[in-house]
Fold this sequence. Notes:
The protein is an all-alpha fold. The chain contains 13 helices and no strands.
Amino acid sequence: MGSGASRQERGQALARAAARRLFDLAVVMVGVATVVFLLLRAVPGDPVLILGGLDTLDRDVIARARAEMGLDRSLVEQYLIWLGNMVSGDLGRSLRSGVPVTDLILRAMPPTFQLGIMALVIGMVISVPLGVAAARRAGSPADLGITVFAILGISTPPFVIALGLVYLFAVEFRLLPVAGYVAFADDPAGNLRAMAMPALTLGLVTGGVLVRMMRRSVIDELGEDYVRTARAKGVGETAVVYRHAVRNAAIPYVTILGLEAGVMLSGAVITETIFAIPGLGRLMIDNINARDYPVVQGTVLVVALVYVLINAGVDGMYRLLDPRVRAGAAR
């Protein structure tokens, strides 16, 4: 009886936590929608004139175009109509092409997600071995060299790294294309060659952040009592580091990894523009310049949604990595 009641209480607690998460998600999305709507309207420039170059047209033609785009309504009306459509899943149509915004976003998502996943993998491949090596040799020349590498990755702007990689791999050695994109389904090898430099650009930046986090976390864990106890029992140093210290160091590491995954979406704006990748970042930049309100609003909302979902995923990873979090969530 007691066990069944306990399971029921845990289930209710998890349901309440899920309801709070959904409520928080709704508040964040409405907040992002409001801010983006207002900021776009604050930017100078009439979409009718910018989109069509209608400087020579008479006022009647311009007025009809504004009415067709819904720009003749008050800001409050425009906002309420767009918010209502957003809630129902309708992000509107592009002012330039008339194509549904959802279709444009779905076309742009695969390149951006592929770029993000590849960059995260590169960042993790760089950060785990280097961070652990620096922690095990704290204060040594090797530690200093790894720390300098990490600081350079963090402090160097992505466009500088991108230009350096272009010169090295595309101009000097002619190993990779300067820019462009090929869908993976059309040409897997060509796709990986085209995405290699953009992914390495973001991966080096992310790797610098993750190296520092892994180094600091492992150093902290190696000073804990349980590590000294394991060593006193004769456990090998490699087992102490990787089975105990690195596993516990993974908790703050996962936090930063989740944050970096979200930050990477903003970094993709510059990287996709430099390498001519037709992803969400480039879609956003092109339509900001054209004042295509529905496309920009829809793209920002999708990016914000992905960021929130990533953070929810990080919370889920906590429950897997730390039993204390699972116990707290079940109360």
